[in-house]
Amino acid sequence: MAQPTTLQPPAASATQDAPRTGTWDGGNEPFKASYGKLMMWFFLLSDAFTFAAFLTTYGMIRHKHEVFTGEAKDFVFSTRWWPIPDHVFNAFPGMGDANVPLGFVALMTMILILSSVTMVLAVEAGHRMDKADVQKWLLWTILFGSIFLCSQAWEWSHFIHGHTEGTLMADGTVFHGANLAMNQYGPVLFADLFFFITGFHGTHVFSGVCLLIWCFIATTNGTFEKRGHYEMVEKIGLYWHFVDLVWVFVFTFFYLV
Amino acid sequence: MASHATTEQPLAPGEIAKPNTAWIWRVFGILVGITAIEFVFAFLMHPSTLRNSIFIILTIFKAFFIVAEFMHLKHETKGLIWTILVPVALLIWLLVALITEGSFIGEVLENMFK
User: Fold this and answer.
1) Is the predicted ipTM greater than 0.90, yes or no?
2) Is the confidence at residue A116, as pLDDT, over 70?
3) Which residues in chain B are closer than 8 Å to A241, comparing Cβ atoms?
C-alpha cells in the first residue's frame, strides 16, 4: 500500500512532547486581564516611580533641615527650620485670616475620595451595560474632579500671596507669600517642593478630568455600547484612582507629618 | 477578571441588572473614617516619631483599600498582584534609605564648623 503524499509525523512522534499548555507557555492570558488594562497598570507603576522620586526627595530634603523644637504655639516662620504644616495651610476661602488649620485640605481630600467613589460607581454601571448610570456617575466624577482643581488653584493662589503678617527676612524687609526663589514660610526648598509636588499631582487630575470628559462624550455617543463593553471606563477609572492614591500620600507627607 | 459575587439572574434582552453598590459605600466609609482618625491625631497629639508612624500606617491602610477594592487588584491574579507590589516595595526601601541619608547630611552640615 502506497504511502499518502501528505506529510505524516514520524512514528517516533508518539514519544515527543505534547504541546505545552502551562501558564507561561504562550497562547493564553496568564494575568487574565486585557492588554489595555495591563498596560494601564504598568503605566501607573512607572508613574508611581515619578511620584515616589518626588516624595523621596521631599523626605531627604526635609530631614536635611533643622526641626523647630519649641512649643507649637511659639512657632514662627523662619528660613532656619522647616515649617509646621498646620501653620502654613490654615486658611479657608472666604474666612480671611481666620486660623483653620488643615481645614481646606481636609475638604479637598474628601472631595477627591468622593470622586473616586463615583468613579467606581461608573465602572460598576459599565459592567451592567447601564448607559444612563455610566453617564450620571461620570458627570459626578467630572464635577468633583473640577471642584478639586479649583480648590487647588485657590490653595496655590493663597500660598503665593501669603499670610497678612508676612515674615521678617534677614535684610529687614517683610516678605509675603512664596515664589521659587523666596518664601515667607521657611527654607526656599519648602515652597519649591510644594509647587512641584502638588503641581505635578494637579496636572494629573487635570489630565484625568480631560479623559473623563472624552469618556463621557464617547458614552453618550454609544461608542462603548456598540463595542459591547465599557472597559475604557475601567481603564480611565484605574488612572483616576491612582491620582486619588497619590493624593493620599501627598496629604500625609506634606500636610500631616 | 474575577468580579464581585452577585446573584446573577438571567436577564431578558435589553434589561439592566440591579446595581450592586453596597461594597463601594462600605469602602468609602472606611476611607473617610481613617482620614477622620488622622485628623484626631493631628490635633490631639504632639508631633513625634510615634505620631508620624501612626500617620504612615494609616496612610498605608488607606492605600490598601483604594488599590485592593477600587482598583480591583485584590481580585486579579496572583501574578499581577506581585508584579505591582514588588517594585513598590523596592521604592519604599529607596524612600527609607534616602530619608536616613538626609538626616545624616543635615547632621554633617550642622556640625561642620563646630
Assistant:
1) no
2) yes
3) 66-67, 70-71
